[in-house]
Amino acid sequence: MLTLVARRGECAAGELGSPFDIAQPTASKHLRVLEQAGLLARRVDGRVHRFRFVPGPLDEAGRWITRHRAFWDGTLARLGDVLADVRRDK
Q: What is the pLDDT of residues 57-75, one digit of tens each?
């Protein structure tokens, strides 16, 4: 759903749920979770609920991953060295 709304721009809830073989309440729950995560913004137009993609939280997550990747890559490399030393010592 997130990919659909990101590609299409603003979409009605029905448009986002229709490509999937899920019931309307399930689609609504999924949209609500994405909205609560800050990834979707809702605009109500009469009875139609329209959603648009909000990239900010994903951008923030990407920055966090980038900052921490170097740490974890280095840590995992050192762990690999330690494990190799342990194997050699046996």
A: 989 999 989 888 877 777 7
